[in-house]
From TrEMBL:
Keywords: Exonuclease, Hydrolase, Nuclease, Nucleotidyltransferase, Transferase. The keyword RNA-binding does not apply. It holds the Pfam family RNase_T. It comes from Halobacillus halophilus (strain ATCC 35676 / DSM 2266 / JCM 20832 / KCTC 3685 / LMG 17431 / NBRC 102448 / NCIMB 2269). This is DNA polymerase III epsilon subunit.
Length: 241
């Protein structure tokens, strides 16, 4: 594999123009225009962050990608999400969206995710997959582990597709774990083991979202035991200096 600096140069001067050429036909789709208008008028729900943590909806999600650097053309190839209301249920609604990439996916990524070239070829393009996720998560607070990575990837993909930015209310379960369990490694696997949460097959977007939702429920109960009762208060705790 090329060093990162050479990958960047390769992407800028060779792959990026090809990528833009390949997505050009999609920009004329009706679904593209609908998504563009929806994002242009999208406004984050600040009021939801002021409600009691046990009275709002959460969409816990995970992305499977072709790499860690969307800035050099790595893509989202699947989204898994679980929507819950408060702490009543960790599996109220589920979404598993496979996304057709523009660039070829290497064998290592296919083995890791369990996806096949045929399934990717027959799946929806990013604009339709993201639209499904947007509809699924509407009116909820997004949760990811770590949210910084997943939100960065989503924003980079939207920018690459010449779409407006997306700024929902977000909670980071990784930061919650750092705060609540300072002496434990904060990756998903050590936390699942520590809390006795059943481990499912990893690097499957929906499985990872389900496990993260179970982790999030544990973290939420501990958070409320600390006297924090709104997402706004929790954000202040997690990001205080």
């Amino acid at each position: 594999m090329l060093p990162v600096d050479l990958q960047i140069l390769k992407y800028i001067f060779f792959e990026k123009p090809i990528y833009h050429y390949k997505i050009k036909p999609y920009l004329k789709w009706k679904s593209y225009g609908n998504l563009q208008r929806q994002l242009q008028t999208y406004e984050p729900d600040f009021e939801i962050a002021k409600k009691n943590l046990n009275e709002v909806d959460y969409t816990i999600f995970d992305l499977e990608t072709t790499g860690f650097l969307p800035e050099i053309g790595h893509e989202i190839i699947s989204i898994g999400a679980v929507r819950i209301h408060g702490l009543d249920s960790c599996y109220r609604k589920k979404l598993h969206q496979v996304i057709r990439p523009i660039r070829p996916v290497n064998k290592q990524t296919l083995r890791l995710t369990g996806l096949t070239k045929e399934r990717l070829k027959n799946s929806s393009p990013f604009i339709e997959g993201f639209q499904n996720f947007l509809d699924f998560s509407e009116g909820s607070i997004l949760v990811a582990h770590p949210a910084k990575f997943d939100m960065r990837f989503l924003q980079a993909m939207l920018k690459r597709w010449k779409l407006p930015a997306y700024h929902p209310q977000v909670l980071d379960s990784h930061l919650m774990a750092q705060w609540l369990f300072p002496d434990i490694k904060h990756q998903l696997d050590p936390l699942l083991k520590h809390l006795g949460i059943e481990k499912r097959e990893r690097h499957h977007a929906l499985n990872d979202a389900i496990m993260t939702s179970e982790l999030f429920c544990h973290l939420m109960r501990l958070t409320m035991n600390e006297g924090i009762n709104t997402a706004e208060d929790l954000q202040n705790q997690l990001y205080k200096k």
